[in-house]
Amino acid sequence: MDYTFFQEYWWLLISILGAFLVFMLFVQGGQSMLLQKMPDEQREKMIYTIAHRWELTFTVLVVFGGAFFASFPLFYSTSFGGAYWLWMLILFGFVVQAVSYKCRKAEGNILGQRTYDVFLFLNGIFAPVLLGGAVGTFFFGSDFTITKTNLTDSASPIISQWGSLHGLEALADWRVLVFGIMVLFLVRVLANLWFINQIDDEQITIWNKTQLRTNAMIFVVLYLIVMFVLFTSSGYETIGEHEFLVVEYKYFHNLFGHFDCILMFLLGTASVIYGICVTLIKKTRSGIWFAGVGTVLVVLVLFWLAGYFNTAYYPSTTDISSSLTIYNSSSSEFTLRTMSYVSIAIPFVLAYIVWVWYKLTKPQSKDVVAEKAE
Fold it and tell me: 303 pLDDT exceeds 50?
């Protein structure tokens, strides 16, 4: 196994973690609907089904960020160091989320439950948009320049230069913003399917099906727009360590040049649509699992299109030679090889998530949910 194998192996692991992270954002999707008009009892039942799963989402986020830091440190130092405000807002949102779940019904709560519900709502809106926007920059680029010689400058040893907004300027690109909004409505769809699956309450089911119709229609429209823009966009193809060629329809060629990617992409898309339709048309509660598996498959393919096939996964719109690939931004072969043994722990992390999920995920009757929500 050579150096290239380990670079591609670690991108595969990051792709898997990223795919599961997007699925787990259904917690944020549920939070984004908490301020909509509904009876308080219904709101509490819905909150109960996601109240302890934010920890699993945060676990996946931390492992995802740690894997990126260890395997592709140049990306980490470039993006996390330069796009400061983008990542700080994401992390701050998760901190506020944790505090809100802890304090919203605590004794001596001086801010009031409503205030913490607003915090949860804001995290539910901005976390998917910002994380989705961050993934969107993998395709549509960011405004940065890398100068490694700056490391020798004691006054400013920073290798990446960004705009004055330090990452937030990426949201000024309508393609990145629409990508993030698409993720928001995807996780709202997943949340509707989750509530229907978990709560045996006719009124809650009717409410969520009504919301599902609207969220699903918006998501499908945004999905078609994003995929059209993505597959008609140019991309950077590697011809040297820091040399790139602009290729028209790069991501279209990446997808349709590999049968396994086409199969997973179409199967994942069909699975999400099936999960939505079977829930709306039939009296079934299993739509979340079809949509969840489909989400993971599609996100996996998107990560592969961004990182594999000699593609720059972090293109620079300012200086093309600063663009990052899995080959010019990775750790050393020794580090990647050594960490590959450590990666054996990742299945244990996933097993922990599955075990906790199993303990928490038991469809509750409306009486049991109401009792525990109180």
Answer: yes
pLDDT of residue 152: 56
Q: Specify burial of residue 76 (Cβ count, 10 A radius: 0-12, 13-18, 19+).
A: middle
Contact (CB, 8 A) for 200 and 365: yes
Give the pair of three-digit tokens for residue 244. 């790139």
- Judge if pTM exceeds 0.90: no
Which residues, other chains included, contact 101 with Cβ-Cβ below 8 Å and sequence gap of 6+? 51, 54, 116, 120
Q: What are the residues whose beta carbons fall under 8 Å from the beta carbon of 142, sequence distance 6 or more? A: 79, 83, 162, 167, 170, 314, 315, 316, 317
Q: What is the percent of the chain with per-residue pLDDT over 90, rounded to a whole number?
A: 43
Answer positive or negative: Cα dihedral of 75, 301, 125, 218. Answer: positive
CA 323/CA 144 separation, integer angstroms: 9
Q: What is the DSSP string of 13-72?
A: HHHHHHHHHHHHTHHHHHHTTTTSS--HHHHHHHHHHHTTTHHHHHHHHHHHHHHHHHH-
β-strand partners of 237: 245, 311
If 0-12 CB within 10 Å is exposed, 13-18 middle and 19+ buried, where does residue 161 land?
A: middle
The full DSSP string for 71-118 is H-HHHIIIIIHHSHHHHHHHHHHHHHHHHHHHHTT-TT-SS-HHHHHH
**Per residue in 209-242, pLDDT tens?**
999 999 999 999 999 999 999 999 999 999 877 7
Backbone phi, then psi, for 49, in 5-degree steps? Answer: -75, -15
> Cα 132 from chain centroid?
6
| Residues listed for the chain | 374
CA atoms within 13 A on the CB side of 15: 20
In 3D space, the residue among 175, 273, 254, 274 whose CA is nearest the CA of residue 222 turns out to be 175
